[in-house]
Amino acid sequence: MRYFIRLSYNGAPFCGWQIQKNGQTIQQILQDALSTLLKEVVEVIGAGRTDTGVNAINYYAHAEISPAGATQLRGRSKEKFIYKLNAILPHQIKVFGIYKMHPAAHARFDAVSRTYKYFITTSPNPFNSQFTHFVKCRNLDIELMNQAAQQLLGTQDFSSLQKVGSDNKTTICTVTEAFWSPFKSPAPFSKMERGKDFVFTVTADHFLRNMVRAMVGSLLEVGTGKRPAEWIAQMLRQKDRCSAGGSVPGNALFLTDIKYPYKIY
């Protein structure tokens, strides 16, 4: 029986989503916790792999659970099961829901779009540094960065923005939105200097490895005056990672939304 699992995680202490030989990953920890509770081997497939340190909100994964194990996921028993599961998981990972799905439903291949957000600040703040990237530029040109971001829209080859050595089957992605906007820090941090915090939002049918972090790094080249806005289109045409900007740190990146062509709950 196939189930979707909805969870969020703080990626700081983990080596990304996907299981690796060396280092803790979210996928491995979730599999181990489910296997322990259900007393059967459970394999978890995620909606996509996030890099080391990257965070996720309302992330989806699916797992095949035997009829015997599924008895714990019926009625009020499911609430108790999720409570026990979260008690086993480290505090940086929290499961919010488990939903029975069609046998062919696939958390990764059925996803029609994914949205990422990247948070930056140009004003040093000791309270939000865990989830924002400090950019040392008082006159960051957000308007010009938004002009440059428009060149990322549409169906294009994003080879210039993928991690070297990636094994993607295709480097063609369709980006449907890409823009910068101000964001307000939550209380009590909102009392800090205002107008210095910005978030980049990007949605696409799928993403290449390191793609969003390289996007942000390239757009910051424009915003800090190192490159003109039209350089983004030129960079994409070169299909060479060396032609793009550097990758920004993963701590400020969040996978915030995954859409499917059917209802999950």
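The record above closes out task 2.4. Task 2.5 opens with a second protein, given below.
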Amino acid sequence: MPELLKMEKIGASYGSVQVLRDVSLELGSGEVLCLLGRNGAGKTTLLKTIMGLVRAISGSILLDGMELTRLPPHEVPRHGVAYVPQGRRLFAELTVAENIEIGLMTRQKGSETREAVLDLFPVLRERLGQRSGTLSGGEQQMLAMARALATEPKVLLLDEPTEGLMPSAIAKIRETVAALRAHGVSTLLVEQRVDAVLPVADRVLFIENGRSVRTIGVAELRADPAMVRHYVGVG
């Protein structure tokens, strides 16, 4: 599988506190790679570093061979990386349609992209005029993903997308990630719910104390669930 996103020996810090140390990963085209680790291991910081929201102090981040590491945060989405942060971060006072429009404007996409995104989330088509702050939690997560996908990304970064959601909404998120894989979109997924990840992930990368410690295939993880207990503390 050809690599699309490559991180090599990335270090990142908040002020004087270093959070990531020599993190490396490779994400293939159309692959779903899940980041697993305890709270505070550095998973969210890793996503923010890719987006330029946390500045890398060492190492390299390449997208299709292009260096992202020194780009300002507003430039990263324009090169094909979309980010759905934990907590969704929608514009609550804007309508569903207006939130999607903001995504479309990022890379100058039009009505064809808008329709493709709404086909993925039919419930949003029924809510276009509704303020996003009044949606259910599951609908808000779908809208956050729809806004990100409106940029037609090569890589989608998802941070805890199933947090606090009902089983039906979790199933929809999982179904969407699988559909994106079929369209060649690569997904880097941070998740605490191992049961929500295994049906869609291709590989799992364990993060421990700000370091990338082990990458394995899902089949291997299923065969050795003790690994999840060791690195995540659940299972």
